[in-house]
Amino acid sequence: VSSSSSSFIWQFEKESGRWKNFNRGMNLAIETANEKYQDVKHLPIYARAVSLDAIVRFTQEHPFIDVDGELKPIMTCSTEEVVKYAILPECRKAGKMRYCEVISQNYGRSHVGNVTVFVSHAWANAWGLIPMMLLHSFHPKRCAELPVFFFLDVFAVCQTQHSVTRGELSYQDSEEYKTANLEDLCNFDITLRNAVRTFGVMDSTGVGVSDRDLCQRAWCLFEFATTLTLGNVLSFRLAQIRQKKGQGKAILRRSAKDQPALLFGDVELVYAKPNKLKKHSSLVDVKNASCRVTSDLISVIYPRVQMLGGGDLKTGLQLVNDMVQKGLDLLEGILEWKDNEVSY
Prior knowledge:
By secondary structure, the protein is α/β, with parallel strands linked by helices. It has helices spanning 6-16, 18-36, 52-61, 79-94, 99-107, 129-137, 140-145, 153-156, 175-186, 188-194, 218-230, 275-278, 294-308, 313-330; strands spanning 49-51, 64-67, 70-73, 112-113, 117-120, 149-151, 162-165, 168-171, 197-203, 233-243, 251-254, 260-263, 267-271. Helix 11 links the parallel strand 9 and strand 10. Helix 10 packs parallel to helix 11 (218-230), helix 11 (218-230) packs across helix 14 (313-330) and helix 13 (294-308) crosses helix 14 (313-330). The longest helix is centred in the N-terminal third of the chain and has 19 residues, at 18-36. It is globular.
């Protein structure tokens, strides 16, 4: 956790040897994975992260999403809509279980690798926040050179055709897809253990809204607490995406240097004041947090929270609350970063 500036984070990681050692081990692991797992389908979940370039290219190639007959700009579509109407159909069409397999097939195997940054986000928020915040916070050229890979659940996890009624999940997929989805979710903590940083993509208009506020979602609180327990870096961006007046569609392009870049021609990020995040840290309560699928709480989140509490669920829940609240209090200054100031 950083106290006030990105330079502190970089200094901390550099002095601890975390980045240097991780980068060396990561490259070796990727080489091994390339030899042993040419088929991305068989990669362990922590090795299914994708490049920043792949995230931007996916967005570029899907400027509009057909949502039940209505064309909507991808930048303002919810992530849930992007999964349901773009990611899932393309996976099925390509005969793939996870979209990272499609990325490997379309963009090349080098765009999939071991996780560096775990991206925490809410499916109810706008998809455009993810590529825009990542480009603001991580230097594209450095990300490509090192390389840096971003774990996005929508690409790394087997997505299924299902419906949710009052928290109960009903699959319309085969048993194979159902099993793969559950196995992926159960291994989230392994991915967090292999990441250097957890990066929270937060919509400032969703603060206080249960299904949009990362600090009121059970999955995100579990991710934050696990990150802090491991002593890894936890950072946030808090902003809203909005469409500029008089503009038609989201315009994405590559810069003159052939690095991923966004033209904020019709949408822009408006960053919130730093104290907006701190104001509601006392409201963190994992026991009453939002979770779209009840079985996720029972079969995935609570058992791991119980482990954090030394085998006692009540202790684990309180530990998660305390850790995240303290972490948020320390993060007040982190929202004042300048563009691209956080660079690997």
